[in-house]
Amino acid sequence: MSTEKALEQRSGNKCELCGSSDDLFVYEMPPVVSPSAGSCILMCPTCDTQLANPKTMDSNHWRGLNDSMWNPELPVQVMSWRALTLMAQQQSWATDLLDMMYLEDDHLEWAKSGLPEPERPPCLDSNGTELQAGDNVTIIKDLPVKGSSMIIKRGTAVRNIGLTEDPLNIQGKADGVGMVIIAAYCKKNK
Predict the structure, then answer these.
(1) How far apart are CA 70 and CA 126, in angstroms?
(2) Which residues in the chain are classed under CATH 2.30.30.40?
(3) 186 has pLDDT over 90
(4) pLDDT tens-digit profile of 65-95?
(5) pTM over 0.90
(6) Thinking of the domain 137-188, which architecture would CATH place it in?
(7) Taking every annotated instance into account, which residue ranges of this chain make up the domain PhnA protein N-terminal proteobacterial (predicted)?
(8) How many other CB atoms are there within 10 angstroms of residue 155's CB atom?
(9) Backbone phi, then psi, for 143, in 5-degree steps?
(10) pLDDT tens digits along 8-41
(11) What helix, strand, coil percent values describe the chain, rounded to 5?
(12) Can you list the alpha helix ranges (DSSP code H) found in the chain?
């Protein structure tokens, strides 16, 4: 039996996430090594479009996740977890459903592997200019160094900065000492 026929039989010819019966297709859940009913779901174009653009997700369309998250088929559970995780950024009901849901550790890793990478906010200097690794900046305010009596004076140049995990901070050497500096207290050199 083909994957599509197996999924149609499993789902009753309905989208396994929202229950729609319009224009269904086989969605191969990343990462897919060899497509089979164990790594695919039957999905409608509306679910596919909204999952590809999480900012446009319509919360009313996703109310069916309350049922699909309990589906006995692992691919449906994994995809429900992904959709709820994306929806939880906008809707508290999705967070509540996620709190009720349980996936084994390896299944949770599969679910997480299919989520888009979160956009990293830009690191901005005092003027709102975006800072990049390797830029040179000037300190705009006298800054005390935590854990020391040292003060980095206004006008001190910091060359070849590095970005940190926190977009509010940069790292670099000021007066020969490596440190993390608040980006808002720096001005990018031209």
Answers:
(1) 49
(2) 137-188
(3) yes
(4) 999 999 999 999 999 999 999 988 788 999 9
(5) no
(6) Roll (2.30)
(7) 6-52
(8) 11
(9) -120, 120
(10) 999 999 999 999 999 999 999 877 667 788 889 9
(11) 35, 20, 50
(12) 3-11, 45-52, 65-68, 74-87, 92-100, 105-113
